[in-house]
Write a structure and sequence with these properties.
- The complex is a heterodimer of chains A (237) and B (166).
- Chain A is of the alpha+beta class and 237 residues long.
- Chain A is built from 9 helices and 4 strands.
- The radius of gyration of chain A is 34 Å and the shape is elongated.
- Chain B is mainly alpha-helical and 166 residues long.
- Chain B folds into 2 domains: 70 residues, Orthogonal Bundle (Rna Polymerase Sigma Factor, Chain: A); 91 residues, Arc Repressor Mutant, subunit A, CATH 1.10.10.10.
- Chain B is globular.
- In chain B, 39% of the residues are buried.
Chain lengths: 237, 166
C-alpha cells in the first residue's frame, strides 16, 4: 500500500511541470513565468519536456487551422433565427413613452387639435410673462449666477433656448462579408456612429452633420446605399 | 451581431468541430451559440473575455450534441485506428514525419483531453479561463492537461514515434 502511494506520488507532476504549456503560449502571470524561466535554465529534464511542448503547441495550431471555416449556411441560419425571434420586452422608459404615445393616439383629431391649441396658448402666455419680467428689470451689466444669501430674490432663472433639431438617423444592413475595419472606415467617412440595433440584423446609425433637409438626407442615404459593404440603407422611423 | 460573428465564428466553429467531429453538427452548433448570445446579451457581465464566454457556451452545446449522438464508440474507434495502421509500410513512412503523426494522435485523444489541449494551445486560454470554460478547479486544469499530454505521448509511442518525453 505504502509502495503504491509512493509510486503515485512519483508520477504526480510538479507544479512547474504543469505550468510549462502556459509558459509556451505566454499566458502565465509574471511571477509564474519567472519561476518557470528560472527552472528551465537549471533543469535539463524540464527543458527537454518544454521542447516537446513547443512541438505540440505548433502542431495543435496547424491542425486547427487546417479545419477551415463554416459555410455561409450557418450565418444565414443564425440571422434567420434572429429575425424570427419575438420582439424583446421594452424597458421601463420605453414602456412610459409608449404609454404617452398611446394616450395621444387614443385622442380624437378634434380633441388633439384643441389640446395642441391650448398647449400653444400656455406657452405663449409663459413667454409673455418672462418677456415682461425681463423688460421690467433689464440686466445692466455682466452678472454671474452665484447665489447671494444676503439678497433674496424671486426672479426666475432662465436658460437660453437653443434650437434643437434631431440629427439624421438611418437604418443600415451591412453585407455579410463586411469586415469590422470596413465598417469602421465607413463610419469615419460619414461621421456616423452606431446608436443601436434593430430587427432584421440592421444597425441604427446617427450622423454628426446635425439637421439636414429632406433632399440632403435622401442624397446621403442614396450614397450610403451605393457603398460596397452596404446591402440596405433606409431612413430610421 | 454581425461584427461579433465575423470576429469569432471561425474559432468557435473549429472548437466545436474538434469536439463533435461532424461539420454539419458543428455548423448548427455555431448558429445556436450565437443565437444564445443574442438572447442573453444582457447577462454578459464582462468579467471574462467574450471569446471565453462563447467557448463556454459552445462547449456546453457540443457536449449536449455528443450525448445525443452517443459518440463514445466513435472515440474508441479513432484511438484504435492509430494502432491498427502501424503495420502498413506506407503509413510507417508517414510516421517518420513526427508532425503528421502528432496531428493524427491529437485527433485520437478523448473529448476531455482534446478540449483542454485546444483551449490551451490553439485558443491560448490561461489556466483561469480554461477553469471557467470547462467548469473545473484550476489545479484540475493543470493536471488534466498534463495527463492529456501523457496520453498523447503514449499514442505517439504506439505509432512508432519516440520524442524523449516522458
Amino acid at each position: 500500500m505504502m509502495a503504491l502511494s509512493k509510486k503515485r506520488l512519483e508520477q504526480e507532476p510538479s507544479d512547474l511541470e504543469t505550468l510549462l504549456p502556459w509558459h509556451a503560449t505566454g499566458t502565465l502571470n509574471a511571477r509564474d513565468a519567472r519561476r518557470v524561466e528560472e527552472a528551465l535554465t537549471r533543469n535539463s529534464e524540464l527543458a527537454r519536456q518544454y521542447a516537446v511542448i513547443r512541438e505540440e503547441y505548433a502542431e495543435t495550431i496547424g491542425l486547427n487551422e487546417s479545419l477551415g471555416a463554416p459555410s455561409v449556411r450557418a450565418m444565414q441560419k443564425l440571422f434567420a433565427a434572429i429575425d424570427a425571434e419575438p420582439a424583446r420586452k421594452p424597458g421601463a422608459s420605453q414602456r412610459g413613452a409608449s404609454r404617452i404615445a398611446g394616450f395621444f393616439a387614443a385622442l380624437s383629431p378634434r380633441a388633439l387639435a384643441w389640446s395642441a391649441s391650448l398647449g400653444a396658448l400656455v406657452l405663449l402666455l409663459q413667454a409673455g410673462v418672462i418677456g415682461a419680467i425681463l423688460l421690467k428689470n433689464p440686466p445692466a451689466t455682466y452678472q454671474t449666477a452665484s447665489l447671494r444669501l444676503d439678497e433674496p430674490t424671486n426672479e426666475p432663472l432662465t436658460r437660453a433656448l437653443v434650437p434643437h433639431e434631431p440629427p439624421l438617423r438611418v437604418l443600415v444592413r451591412f453585407k455579410p462579408e463586411a469586415r469590422m475595419s470596413d465598417i469602421t472606415a465607413l463610419l469615419d467617412t460619414y461621421q456616423a456612429s452606431i446608436i443601436g440595433g434593430a430587427q432584421g440584423g440592421m444597425l441604427r446609425l446617427q450622423f454628426a452633420a446635425g439637421a439636414v433637409t429632406r433632399d440632403d438626407a435622401a442624397r446621403l442615404i442614396g450614397k450610403l446605399q451605393s457603398e460596397k459593404i452596404v446591402s440596405l440603407a433606409v431612413p430610421a422611423p | 451581431m454581425q461584427v461579433l460573428y465575423g470576429r469569432h465564428h471561425v474559432r468557435v466553429f473549429r472548437f466545436g468541430l474538434r469536439l463533435v467531429r461532424d461539420e454539419q453538427i458543428a455548423e448548427d452548433l455555431i448558429s445556436e451559440v450565437f443565437l444564445d448570445v443574442w438572447r442573453q446579451a444582457g447577462k454578459f457581465e464582462g468579467r471574462s473575455a467574450v471569446s471565453t464566454w462563447l467557448l463556454a457556451i459552445a462547449r456546453f452545446k457540443a457536449l449536449s450534441a455528443l450525448r445525443r449522438r452517443k459518440d463514445v464508440e466513435l472515440e474508441d474507434d479513432a484511438a484504435n485506428a492509430i494502432e491498427d495502421t502501424s503495420d502498413d509500410p506506407e503509413v510507417t513512412v508517414q510516421k517518420k514525419d513526427a508532425g503528421e503523426a502528432l496531428r493524427r494522435c491529437l485527433t485520437a485523444l478523448s473529448t476531455e483531453h482534446r478540449e483542454i489541449v485546444d483551449l490551451v494551445y490553439y485558443h491560448e486560454k490561461s489556466v483561469e479561463e480554461v477553469a471557467e470554460i470547462v467548469g473545473i478547479p484550476e489545479n484540475t486544469v493543470k493536471t488534466r492537461l498534463f495527463y492529456a499530454r501523457k496520453k498523447l505521448a503514449d499514442l505517439l509511442r504506439a505509432a512508432g514515434v519516440e520524442r524523449g518525453w516522458p
